[in-house]
Amino acid sequence: MNKDKFWKLIEDSILASQGNFDKQVDILKSHLVKLPVEDIVKFDRIFYEYYAQTKISTLWAAADLIEGWCSDDRFDYFRAWVIGQGKAVFDLALDNPDNLADIDSIILARKYSGELLMYAASEAYEEKTGEEDFDELSIEGEESIPYQEITLDWVDETKQAIPSRLKTLLPKLYHRFRKE
Predict the structure, then answer these.
(1) What residue stretches are annotated with the DUF4240 domain (predicted)?
(2) How far apart are CA 59 and CA 125, in angstroms?
(3) Which of 90, 114, 116, 99 lies closest to 65 in space, CA to CA?
(4) What is the mean pLDDT of the chain?
(5) CA distances from 92 to 89, 102, 141, 161, 179 (A)
């Protein structure tokens, strides 16, 4: 499993699901089950490498605008949802989260949680093997994934979003999701 194969699996599941994210995850799992166990584990590792890259303050601010409010758990699910939208959306979100305002499907982030995608590989592994030791397999080498702490400079001391900062930071998303 390499990163190109990872994105192909994501893209194929997008096409087959016709815009239903929950269905997309089911389709993805059905494809993963057909792979060798090593590839299922590698898929999970690649997923979490990309997932670590999405832990950025401006993407959290984007999620907050899109969702109307975004807890840390909900941000985790949003980050997974972004990966589940494919490489083009992932790259766009990392380059400048404000560009998510230009994506028609962004409104679906409110409807579908990316949480299910976070467990796709482990569920495929368990279905394929009947074993529940996936966490032990996937954790090998995970310490090399760089998880970083972030500062949310767009919230006040009570952890509430500051509208003026959001408007400056992400003007297109602010205009699309916050009505003044």
Answers:
(1) 1-127
(2) 30
(3) 99
(4) 89
(5) 5, 10, 28, 23, 24
